[in-house]
Design brief:
Elements (H helix, E strand, L loop, with lengths): L10 E4 L3 E3 L2 E7 L3 E4 L1 E10 L18 H4 E9 L5 E12 L6 E5 L6 H20 L2 H14 L6 H4 L3 E7 L5 E5 L13 H14 L7 E8 L22 E3 L3 E2 L12 E8 L1 H8 L1 E3 L5 H4 L3 E2 L5 E2 L4 E2 L8 H6 L9 H12 L1 E2 L5
Helix pairs in contact: 3-5, 3-9
Length: about 350
């Protein structure tokens, strides 16, 4: 049996093995034609929405000062064209050979070269076992479930009346899924169409470079007119006063825009990182899943932004602890599948402080 290490190498990192593009937003016009869906920047005058309970003299009342009541902002919005019939979101993805995942593995100041070489051997043996067995096929089915159910649409899925996901295969065929009718929190009962897409993704992880999948989601909001949709948001550390919300967009900005009117900022999109987070929300192996019933994104410590909690940072459940046992793990077990998914996710696992 392989030796369990006491610490990970001082330098250890993996490159991601799921390559994903941004998800671009389009207006569907007349059921056939498409046009880019723009992020627009504009001003609004709203009202304050601040909880000031317990602070005397600051309630918004008829006698309050105007600046305490008004909330004047510059903000970004993304809205369908007035004559659009639906929102379309498009992105591409493919799997990269998991044997190429290891990006850096080098000794720290107190690392033994013999231990380092033994770790590399154990890691590559684990990856080869995964490629020879069905572990990668199992993971691919889970990733594809999150394509089929439209999890990558985030809030756009929540407000949808109907949502259809079409996946174009490299062979020329297509598979279509009713996103709102596909299971969202479980990965049982994989359909034949899901397996067909998963087989392509798994081939990429096993070394086939010709495995690009092209995903198109059609979202019907159930109302006409310029309805709001939801691309990724940008984080600004030092946001200007009165600037409410910047949205993510790509492409060039049209020239000669009126600086004092509504401005087009670019084509609305979901970031590749946000799509990737949704697709890897497959962790039902963490200890609290039986109680919560909600899958987590694959994160070494089981980090959940929704719950603001770590679900794998105690005991032997973390990806870092499991990496120490890589030589003895079966990739097809729950622990092995989670560790394999961590490798596909990529990241830094270095043992140095």
């Amino acid at each position: 049996m392989a030796k369990k290490l006491s610490k990970l190498p001082g330098v250890l990192s993996f490159q991601r093995c799921l390559l994903v593009t941004d998800g671009l937003f389009y207006n569907e016009l007349d059921g056939e034609r498409l046009s880019p869906l723009w992020v627009i920047r504009h001003g609004i005058r709203g009202t304050q929405n601040i909880n000031k309970a317990g602070k005397e003299g600051q309630a918004a009342s008829a006698s309050a000062k105007r600046e305490e009541v008004s909330n004047i902002q510059t903000t970004d919005s993304a809205k369908l064209a007035a004559d659009a019939t639906a929102l379309l979101v498009r992105f591409n993805l493919r799997g990269m050979d998991v044997e190429k995942a290891l990006f850096a593995c080098a000794p720290g100041q107190k690392d033994s070269m013999s231990d380092l070489n033994a770790f590399k051997d154990d890691l590559m043996a684990f990856v080869r076992r995964a490629k020879e067995g069905d572990a990668l096929d199992q993971l691919a089915c889970r990733y594809v479930r999150n394509i089929a159910n439209g999890r990558f649409l985030w809030r756009n899925r929540t407000v949808a009346q109907t949502a259809t996901v079409e996946v174009a295969l490299p062979t020329g065929g297509k598979k279509t899924f009713d996103a709102l009718q596909t299971p969202f929190n479980s990965f049982d009962g994989v359909s034949a169409d899901e397996r067909a897409v998963a087989e392509v993704l798994a081939r990429g992880w096993k070394g086939d470079p010709q495995t690009e999948l092209r995903v198109t989601a059609r979202v019907d909001l159930g109302l006409g007119g310029a309805a709001e949709v939801f691309p990724s948001q940008n984080y600004l550390e030092n946001k200007a006063r009165g600037f409410a919300r910047p949205l993510y967009c790509v492409g060039g900005v049209p020239d000669n825009q009126d600086q004092h009117s509504v401005r087009i900022m670019g084509q609305a999109a979901l970031r590749d990182q946000k799509i990737g987070n949704a697709l890897r929300t497959i962790d039902t192996w963490y200890p609290a899943y039986g109680e919560r019933g909600i899958p987590l994104p694959v994160e070494p410590n089981g980090a959940s932004l929704d719950a603001q909690e770590f679900f794998r940072n105690k005991g032997e459940a973390s990806g870092f602890k499991l990496m120490l046992r890589v030589g003895e793990l079966d990739p097809a077990t729950p622990e092995g599948l989670f560790l394999l998914a961590c490798i596909i996710r990529g990241g830094v696992f270095s043992g140095s402080e």
